[in-house]
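Follow-up to my post from last week.
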Amino acid sequence: MAVRLAHKMAIESDLVRADMVEAIEFPHLAVKYHVHGVPKTVVNETFFIEGAMPEVLFVQQIVKAVK
Amino acid sequence: MPAPIIPAKEREHIQKFFEEKLVNPVRLVMFTQEFECEYCAETRQLVEEIAQLSPKITAEIYNFVTDKPQAEKYQVDKIPAIALIGQKDYGIRFYGIPSGYEFSTLLEDIVDVSQGESGLSEASKKALATLTKPVHIQVFVTPT
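User reply:
Got it. Predicted complex:
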């Protein structure tokens, strides 16, 4: 769900790029971003969302975080 | 020949799904390397199998080590990687194999990219229209 949403945001805005990252295959990144549960969303290295969230909230939190 | 990843029954279902929904061509640009890690080989096979399910989908396989210009063009910094490219590069990437729940994500993303439409609500579209700075989102998942 979170991956779908992030990818939809990338389609909608030219300013957004969005990656799915499989935590087990990239353990160094999971450690770097303190991924203890999934989904975990990392925005511009500085803002984090733990768990799943409804669309509007997810989008609004991210937009607010980068302003 | 390794056994197919997508079961025959599932293949038919996906074929129909693509036939109904796909509009513009989609390229699955995949990065691997010569001595493939386990997931690299599987991801490549998955991408190739998906490309067989619609004439509108093509698989492009690159070598992450020797095809550096391509890796840079698509801003790919680790493998296995898949970039979904439609009428343009929307910035959609999969790092690691999209399995389980994320396999459905990949199929649905292909449709969105092909249609060039996010399908987000008006409220979300409005919020995104206010962005002024680049946003890089990384969503960590585990196979389900």
